[in-house]
Design brief:
The complex is a heterodimer of chains A (427) and B (529). With 427 residues, chain A is an alpha/beta fold. Chain A is built from 17 helices and 14 strands. Classes of the chains: A alpha/beta (427), B alpha/beta (529).
Chain lengths: 427, 529
């Protein structure tokens, strides 16, 4: 058992050693292609070309809903029966499609070839295609590849795969220490964190992914990185292979999580406790006061998480410790023990953790428990509402600024709103 | 490979899901990778169904590919049967599962379930959603309709009975079309035997033979099945789709013919306001408005007829993404002297719309985006649609009430007559200006120009005009004089694009190096008929 070092000296070890219910069966989750929906907005000069089937194209457009534009920065190269006849043909076809695309969009600086289930199953070598096309379109366009297939990635793991594919092309940094914040954050949150780190006196801070593909952050042995999101296992490994070191911390959700997350950086960069206190006290107090109002509504309520994004554990920690909710079940598609060690230590002991899914069995457990609120995907939300349960659809948690002090009460409000609404409509 | 920004149709297994979800007591076991459950939210979110679609997915992952995915499928099918106790099962594969070739049909036979199991062969790399729905419905009916034999003639003293075929889950206005047409048939004196697939059980499919003819509401879904029923049971089928007042009258006459009843009373009592609304003087300004129609074949053919004959629009272009019905759409397009655009490439449609300089687009959700980008009014007439086109209120497209609904929703995006006149007469108003959205639509949203503003120099104007009309090989030889460009701005915005194009064509024909005000008016006179 890996040693768990509690950041706070709690009486218990939380959930650090707790057994996990592992299930296999139908998984009601998105595939990693869905990550494209927020990544294409974050990296403004990147284009995502899915190499897949009509299903893949249909998925992205259905998931993106009304947000799709006349000229989106993603598309699908749909494999058809002619491509399935022979692989050589497939590569020529891909080159043709990419050439047509880049002619149409000369503003693109970075092109991701995104693998899908069909392209993985027919073993289309997209990494070779990427290096071939990169050579052809260099220096104007860099072409990379990653897999967002459902067979390999679940929802937010698409971002992990994308960022991991970018790591080898990050410029080399000098040895002097610098901080990197890893994980796509909304612009407003990124700016808040940048200001806090500046006030703490941590001079060189880079955010990864950057807003422009041409502004990639440097990485090297001096790099210390903080994960802003819990689903970045491969990215962390790739950064470590370039000499960077991860700062272990819980995730910056809620007042406590944000403080401990900032503390991990402050410790590493030898920020004095005084400066840390001075910097964090005002936003901490502000956020705590805002949270107190939400606590009145959420305290004592029972919450059930279906697996979706890997954000479930940090969210459960925040909701239980800062808002007094009780955790019925915390499901996650994938539990990375090392990256979640600090989170698990803060969870109440004997929380029911489940990894993977057998959706019918999990629905049976959920119905039997009749929690006050259920966090689940859009395929389950309305059917559960129709059964009289209150739900919070999980994808919104990925599309909303929720990190940091000033978003803590917004995050709580996402859970309050469905409960308030149910009361209002019943009245 | 095909570069796709948008797809008009999903893969064929989504069509199969639409049949399964429409029906009762049916369960669909789909061999598919993790993630394909996204399709559930089409039904739970877009159509807002309060139940999960009756679909069990195997959701295999990469680690399963090394093992026994066939066994996974069998487990999923067995568990689904035990849990849901359906009266019939459908089994099939999604695009990825098609590649690993586990043969769901054969595997399910080995399970020896005590209910009919229909194995679906849906070639994902060739076919699409509507084909998948049509094929699935056909296979279900073939499997469950009972032995093939001509049916005995019915007792003529009873009211005639028909089946209604075609409405599915996730169909554009299927819910209300069905109610409208059921009411229409009832007033006509015709009973409905079975509606399928929407709301039908496997047992209901066994009763299809009890009707004397079939009403096909959506040929994309049901014409294959209706043809088989015709061959197997001798049931006639309707060919007219009752979209628009004229088509509804034709439909009544056709049904009356098949049922052997007199339609006079039903036609006399037809409660359609749309024809009168279109004749009223307020609608005069609609005359000759240039419309482009795109969508599935059925809705496009019907919308073009209604646009031309019942609204007085000019159909300047029409097309469909339904390749299976390309011939019908080509035939219909000939009626309006245009060539049909048969494509599922969104970029082709976009190019056509901008070339034709239309004043109204009748299309799908995608055309809504194209129209937004080009600043052209748009109404939705066909799937694919988004959540706002599964409305709470009664909103059929079919029958007389459907014609009323279409009249309102097509006219709504157009600028109203008086405002249009006043903007043509007076310019430079701070609030009511030509670049503002029609004021009855509220908001002060800035309208995108159909053409670039005149502020640019001649050289830029040349570039702009060539990029708008990439098909014109000689483009680039004409230049707009600053005064002519200024004059062009005085032409009302919704016809300005056409004026620009016509003037440029005229200038090229005459070999004019620079377009002057004179040339602009010469061109106007030249093209006016």
């Amino acid at each position: 058992m890996s040693p768990v070092i509690p950041i706070r000296s709690d009486a218990t070890n939380g959930c650090g050693d707790a057994p996990v219910l592992r299930e296999r069966g139908q998984r009601e989750v998105f595939c990693g292609l869905t990550g494209i929906i927020w990544l294409h907005r974050k990296i403004q000069d990147a284009f995502f070309l899915v190499v897949g089937s009509r299903t893949c194209a249909h998925l992205i457009q259905s998931a993106a809903g009304v947000m799709i534009f006349a000229e989106p920065r993603f598309a699908t190269a749909i494999i058809d029966e002619r491509d399935l006849a022979g692989l050589a043909d497939c590569n020529t076809e891909l080159d043709r499609v990419v050439t047509r695309l880049l002619e149409r969009r000369p503003d693109i600086k970075l092109l991701f070839l995104v693998g899908s289930c069909p392209s993985e199953v027919i073993k289309l070598d997209l990494s070779r295609a990427a290096s071939r096309l990169s050579a052809q379109f260099s220096p104007d366009v860099r072409v990379l590849n990653y897999s967002g297939s459902g067979i390999e990635t679940t929802f937010t793991q698409g971002e992990d795969a994308c960022l991991a594919s970018l790591v080898p092309s990050l410029p080399a940094a000098e040895a002097s220490p610098a901080l990197m914040v890893v994980g796509a954050l909304s612009d407003v949150v990124e700016d808040q964190f940048a200001r806090l780190f500046a006030q703490l006196g941590i001079g060189r801070v880079h955010f990864f992914p950057p807003r422009k593909a041409t502004l990639l952050p440097p990485v090297g042995p001096g790099t210390r990185f903080l994960l802003a999101q819990p689903f970045l296992a491969d990215t962390a490994r790739a950064l470590e292979s370039r000499g960077a070191r991860r700062l272990a911390a819980p995730y910056p959700l809620g007042v406590e999580g944000t403080t401990l997350w900032l503390q991990a950086a402050a410790n590493e960069f030898a920020v004095s406790p005084q400066v840390f206190e001075q910097t964090t006290a005002p936003p901490r107090q502000r956020a705590s006061a805002a949270l107190a109002r939400q606590r009145l509504r959420l305290s004592g309520k029972r919450i059930f998480f279906f697996p979706d994004s890997q954000l479930e554990v940090p969210l459960a920690r925040f909701l239980s410790r800062e808002l007094g909710m009780s955790l019925v079940e915390v499901g996650t598609p994938y539990l990375h023990r090392e990256h979640l060690a600090e989170e698990l230590a803060l969870l109440p002991p004997d929380t029911l953790l489940s990894e993977g899914q057998h959706v019918e069995n999990q629905l049976d457990r959920c119905r039997a428990e009749r929690p006050d609120i259920v966090v689940c995907g859009l395929g389950l939300a309305n059917p559960l509402e129709a059964e009289g349960l209150t739900t919070k659809w999980a994808i919104e948690l990925v599309f909303t600024p929720i990190h940091g002090y000033d978003q803590a009460s917004d995050l709580a409000e996402l859970f309050t709103r469905p409960l308030v609404r149910r009361l209002q409509l019943a009245a | 490979m095909q570069l796709t920004l948008w797809t008009y149709e999903g893969p064929p297994h989504v069509g199969a899901m639409r049949i399964a979800t429409a029906m009762e007591s049916v369960h669909y076991v789909l061999h598919a990778p993790q993630g394909d459950t996204y399709a559930d939210l089409l039904f739970t979110m877009i159509e807002r169904l309060p139940k999960r679609p009756p679909v069990t997915y195997t959701t295999f992952q990469a680690r399963d590919l090394g093992g026994d995915t066939a066994e996974m499928f069998k487990t999923a099918a067995r568990e689904a049967f035990e849990r849901f106790k359906p009266k019939a099962m459908m089994v099939g594969a999604s695009c990825t599962a098609e590649l690993i070739q586990d043969d769901p049909g054969g595997l399910c036979r080995a399970l020896d379930l005590p209910v009919p199991v229909v194995a679906l062969e849906l070639p994902s790399y060739q076919r699409k959603e509507n084909w998948g729905a049509s094929e699935t419905f056909y296979q279900m009916v073939r499997a469950l309709a009972g032995p093939v034999a001509p049916i005995a003639p019915r007792d003529t003293s009873l009211r005639p009975r028909c089946n209604i075929l075609g409405p599915t889950a996730l169909g554009f206005r299927h819910r209300d079309d069905l109610r409208e047409i059921t009411g229409l048939l009832d007033r006509l004196g015709v009973d409905v035997n079975v509606v399928a697939p929407l709301g039908a059980t496997p047992d209901d499919l066994g009763r299809l033979r009890d009707a004397s003819f079939n009403v096909v509401l959506y040929p994309e879904i049901a014409s294959l099945t209706a043809q088989w029923l015709q061959r197997s049971f001798g049931q006639a089928m309707t060919r007219t789709v009752p979209l628009g007042s004229g088509a509804t009258r034709d439909f009544i006459a056709e049904v009356a013919g098949l049922a052997g009843i007199d339609p006079t009373a039903a036609l006399a009592n037809a409660d359609a306001r749309a024809p009168w609304y279109a004749r009223s003087v307020d609608s005069t300004y609609l005359t000759g408005k240039r419309v482009f129609v795109f969508g599935d074949a059925t809705h496009v053919i019907a919308a073009a007829r209604m646009a031309a004959r019942e609204m007085g629009f000019t159909v300047v272009g029409m097309g469909t993404y339904s390749r299976e019905f390309a011939r019908e759409v080509r035939e219909a397009a000939k009626l309006y002297g245009v060539e049909a655009l048969i494509t599922d490439d969104y970029l082709d449609v976009e190019q056509k719309i901008s070339e034709l300089q239309v004043e109204l687009v009748l299309g799908t959700q995608m055309e809504r985006h194209i129209a937004k980008r080009l600043g052209v009014p748009c109404a939705v007439i066909s799937a694919p649609v988004h959540v706002q086109d599964f409305p709470a209120r009664y909103s059929p497209q079919m029958g007389f009430e459907g014609a009323n609904v279409m009249f309102d929703s097509w006219v709504h995006p157009l600028m109203m007559g008086l405002e249009e006149h006043l903007i043509g007469m007076f310019r430079g108003d701070a609030e009511f200006h030509e670049d503002a959205a029609p004021s009855h639509l509220g908001g002060a949203a800035k309208r995108h120009e159909m053409q670039p503003p005149s502020a640019m120099g001649p050289a830029q104007a040349v570039i702009a005009s060539t990029s708008e009309a990439p098909n014109q090989t000689v483009a680039g030889t004409t230049t707009w004089g600053a005064d002519a460009e200024q004059e062009l701005r005085k032409i009302p915005f919704f016809v300005r694009g056409k004026a620009r194009r016509n003037t440029e064509i005229y200038a090229r024909e005459k070999g004019l190096p620079i377009i002057t005000i004179e040339a602009l008016y010469d061109a106007k006179a030249h093209f006016s008929r």
